[in-house]
Amino acid sequence: MRKRPDPMNDEATTAAERFDAALLQRMTGQSGDRDTLEMQCLMLAEMTGLSLALNAGKAIGEPVDVEFDSFKAGPRSELIAEFDVNSVICPVFIDGWCDDITLAANTVFVIAVMECMLGGGVPEGKKIKPRELSEIELDVSTILFAQFAESLKSAIALPVPKEATAGQATQEQPELEEGKENTPCVLLTFQVRLGSVEAPFMVVLPQRPLLKSKIAEQEDGKPLKPERPSWARQLTTQVSHSHVLLEARISLSALTLGEVARLQEGDVLPFDDEGGVRTLLSAGGKELFWCEFGKAGNRYTVRVQEPHRHEHELMRDIAPG
């Protein structure tokens, strides 16, 4: 006969409650033994990694390597707490399979992808530092996570999954729904490499759907068929349609510090240029074009004349950095 927990002994009560909860989870199929979980995770990670490397490399235009790093089982709250402080996080769900998946990636990888998509080539990993992402980069992160979800979906044979959907990426730690903190989950960690940039991608998903799944297998001797990377067009569109603040600077005639100190309301300062006035157009602190200053109707205008920098550097200079 099981002893009744001693209300005067919190440690004993807690241990009993944990034992009862773990036993109930196992009996109801919410959790599994470590060997079974590890086998499922290894097969899932292999197929997911193959799909992600193939389609991400095709879309970005540079080789992408994906390597499975580690597996861990535990309550959802403990596993999500392992996300790095420099992570960007996204909720995803795969209709017909699992509606409660959380993905995370280091911001370094997103910054590297942005540079590639803007024509800057593969950056050196040591030059990129994790930082807070801009709104543009968060949108790009969401698209990257959507592709990761598609790669997860492709690894599930049964039950046949339907559409994979990604929520909005954020750098805030996710708030867990009440009652789901202790849901038995697994944490899969991948190392993703783009040139010399290497960063972790992490997946937290419940054990229950994983245990009931049949993982897809690669046919011997046949490479994976690349999917049509529609998300690549989304990336390009997102980057090219992003709004940037433009500023036009006009040089005024030089004054001494004493003359500046004596300026008063109503004083008139001449432009430095005689005749046609040139302005320097910039965005995000990056100097872009020389322009001609003018007026159209009631609004002052600038007409683009020539690049301040080489054309191949233009898009890269506008990128958030």
UniProtKB/TrEMBL annotation:
Function, in words: FliM is one of three proteins (FliG, FliN, FliM) that forms the rotor-mounted switch complex (C ring), located at the base of the basal body. This complex interacts with the CheY and CheZ chemotaxis proteins, in addition to contacting components of the motor that determine the direction of flagellar rotation.
Entry membrane topology: Peripheral membrane protein
Protein name per UniProt: Flagellar motor switch protein FliM
Family to which the UniProt record says this protein belongs: Belongs to the FliM family.
Organism, as annotated: Hoeflea poritis
Compartment(s): Bacterial flagellum basal body; Cell membrane
Alphabetized PANTHER family for the sequence: FLAGELLAR MOTOR SWITCH PROTEIN FLIM (PTHR30034), YOP PROTEINS TRANSLOCATION PROTEIN Q (PTHR30034:SF6)
Pfam families: FliMN_C
InterPro entries: CheC-like_sf, FliN-like_C, SpoA-like_sf
Keywords (A to Z) from UniProt: Bacterial flagellum, Cell membrane, Cell projection, Chemotaxis, Cilium, Flagellar rotation, Flagellum, Membrane
Domain Flagellar motor switch protein FliN-like C-terminal: 238-307
